[in-house]
Amino acid sequence: MTAVRVGLVGYGMAGRDIHAPLIRAAGLTMAAVATRNAERADAARAEHRVAVVPDLSAMLERDDIDVVVLASPSGVHADQVGQCVAARRPVVVDKPLAVDARSAAAAVAAAKAAGVPLTVFQNRRYDPEFATISHVLASGLVGQPFRAELRWERWRPVPRRRWREEAPWQEGGGIMLDLHTHLVDQAVLLFGPVVRVYAEVASRSTVSDDDAFLALHHGSGMLTHVGATSLSAAPGPRLRLLGREAAYLLATASGQEHALGDLADLDGHHGWLIRGADDREPVPAQHADPADFYRSVAAALAALDPQAAMPVDPRDAVHVLAVLDAARVSSATATVVDVVTPS
């Protein structure tokens, strides 16, 4: 089978450090990179020996691209998906698909109408820690679950000088469009769609939100607390799942800097099964390979129904953004808000 040829749009942190290594590890071919930054262009040529073009329009003029990967700033994702759809090019877009659910739903509808395969890069679905909590739930290790807490906390008292910190959320900035798109996506996969939300969202050190807590009420009856902040000098546990028979606790995870004392992971394990202060056992880590996302994309493009075979249904991303839309209203009004996902 001929390797799938990828056109990567954006060669900043996401494109260079996340997408490009996974694309190559999955066996796909980097055919071209789009960037206007001269230093990044030189790096792309040196690291991947690829053609470099200035922008998405130039990328879409090439005839050696099988799929476009958008690793560009979040605020332009929806418009760029529209360009790819108009050019009839399959597209992978980094999360979030758009800045709000209405724009995301419009992008999904346009891709469907044109018959253009579209998927969303929800790479945290492929983390070992997510595979492990999924195993804990499927195996009934905590008994009947009733509440889960998912955190992604950082200590950045001096904000970085990037669009993510300096742009308002309407232009793609903020921690909710960055980290809560992972946390809410995982919560929905584990416990089902969210029907209502209560939220507390703040902008403490940046233009957009940098500190947000969401209480998610799932249609299944499960309650999930998800939080992310850039201002936690003492990060809480990455994940805590409470059940009638036990609790599962993951003290830290990839991307976090601090473990919680003697609850740090052991080699080959992810987290602990705990039944009171004196009864705990390490939980073996489940295998997961982030490059499987791009292996699935390649397989989908060769399938009879590429859209159905894509690793992430883009409608999932619409629901996640509907939850975040409701969270912004909840925080502004100090009320519990129903989640309405555009069809």
Overview features:
9-stranded mixed β-sheet; 6-stranded parallel β-sheet; alpha/beta; Dihydrodipicolinate Reductase, domain 2; 343 residues; 11 helices; Rossmann fold
Can you put this structure into words, describing what you see?
35% of the residues lie in helices and 24% in strands. The protein is of the alpha/beta class and 343 residues long. The protein has two domains: 138 residues, Rossmann fold, CATH 3.40.50; 160 residues, 2-Layer Sandwich (Dihydrodipicolinate Reductase, domain 2). The strands form two sheets. A nine-stranded mixed sheet has the order 14-13-12-11-7-10-9-8-15. A six-stranded parallel sheet has the order 3-2-1-4-5-6, sandwiched between helices. A hairpin with an 8-residue loop joins β8 and β9. α4 packs parallel to α5, α5 packs antiparallel against α11 and α8 packs across α11. It is globular and about 60 Å long.
